[in-house]
Amino acid sequence: MATILTTSNVHNIPAVCRIPEKGTATLVSPGMLLTSTHVVGTADACASLTAIFFEGTKKKPVEVKLLPQKYFFAAAYPEYMDYCLVACEEAGLLNVVPVTIPLTKDQWAPVTEGDIILVVQHPAESSDSGKADPEVGDIAPAAGSADPPLVMKRFVEVLRHRDDLFYLKTTRDVRTAGCPAFNDRGQLIGLQSQVRHPRTGIVNHVVSITAIVKHLFANKQLWSINRNQTFEEVWNTWYVKNDITRILSITANFKSRAITRETILKLCEHAAQREILNTLVREGGAQAILNALDIFIDDEEVVFACIKALWNISFSEELIRLCLGGGKSLGMILDAMEKFPKNEQIAEHATLFLHNICSGNDKLDFERDVEERALTLVHSTLRTFKGTVMLQKFGFAFFNSLIATNLRNAEILVGQGVIAHLVRLAQERKDNVLLMEVVMRFLGFIAQNPRAVNMYVTSRDVGMGGGSKGVSVITGLLVDIMLKHKDVDRILLDGSQALWGFGNDVACRAVILQHPRAFEALRISLPAVISHSKVL
Length: 536
Hints:
Elements: E1 2-3, E2 16-19, E3 23-29, E4 32-35, H1 37-40, E5 50-53, E6 62-65, E7 72-74, E8 84-87, E9 116-121, E10 152-157, E11 160-162, E12 165-167, E13 176-182, E14 188-197, E15 201-208, H2 209-218, H3 231-238, H4 244-253, H5 257-270, H6 277-282, H7 285-295, H8 300-313, H9 317-323, H10 327-339, H11 344-357, H12 368-384, H13 389-405, H14 408-415, H15 418-428, H16 433-447, H17 450-458, H18 467-484, H19 489-503, H20 506-514, H21 518-535
Helix pairs in contact: 4-5, 5-7, 5-8, 7-8, 8-11, 10-12, 11-13, 12-13, 13-16, 14-17, 15-18, 16-19, 18-19, 18-20, 18-21, 19-20, 19-21
């Protein structure tokens, strides 16, 4: 049935407007109209169009321009998905409450065959006569009015429901498009249009609003509709298990800081699943994590989650190459360490990450300023968390990797007093074989740089722990560790290298020769040295 609306009996639906000579549109967000693509055409075509609100009411009509240059999105596929979002002027519409588009499944209203729905439309001219259709276009004029208003409200029955479309009874040859359809509770359930198709003739159907919302989500356009949603509503609607593209689409569609934050935390959790890491990186998940690290640099929980996720990714050299863009990305990791110097978890995972990306067969090259900053921050971290053995082990392993590529880094670390820290660490953790392997490796590298050795020997800086007393302590430490772990070839080899390297300095040589067990340590290391030489 059709209910004729006049200026005297119109039900006020101010968010519905007319696009003159084209069809209908609905305000769904401040400055945003939902209509059919058939109504507005292309972005260029609709630049000259306007929308008229409050027609047939006691209020003065307000005409606003469409602003496709500000925002325009028209569905291109599939063909039946006939909808468009286009921006419009907001002046004069401040008191218009937009119609709610349901963005999450708890708001999606079910529609079944036999339901009666309300369609608000502005019939366009008949395609045959160029005039309003006599059955539905002759709208009763209000008293004292010469011309009928153009708004018509129709209550119609849903005859069929097929996938994303609801089919209605056709109304001769009236052409309509972009018309909002509501259920009996006033919820928007779709866009109605009646058009003539070359193959099927006149078709009167409603495109489901749920289908439109899903299409917008797939095209990352839901952000254009200003709605307040909770993270739980969004996640429960759009997340698909282990689907990284879905998670990234959530961040693209819902721009609120709260939803972005929670979504990134979920994305970081997925990085712990090794079987989907390749997909995560290749789909842009790692870059999203890096971006979040920058955006949420003041949020300690998010920073830790991002660092931990990047650490998981760093076990694959291929993946780390794909996700890191050089100094800027590494700089964000260092920013996090600097921002939260007392957070042990951030310190540990950031150090492990740095170790992973600069070790292995395909090491990442550090820019010089980034490299020096990393050395300083990791050293500070090691001094802060002296009791964390894992952190100490991988921190010194990181130093070893950087010294191996640039011996000058040995001078930087000696100048920062790292040997004084190492001595205390080795004295307390001498029984830890894995840690001692890394420590001896480090001292072996230091000994290969005469300038670093000289800096240590001649230093009068108490913080460096050097001078003649420091040399004596280092010598005793090297000998003790070699004798204690005489069955570990790696320790013996690096210990021998360190003793010979320090011994190239005259002052150090005298101290080494005076140690009662130095020759014994060198003697037991000979088989390991010879074996290593044969391999080379």
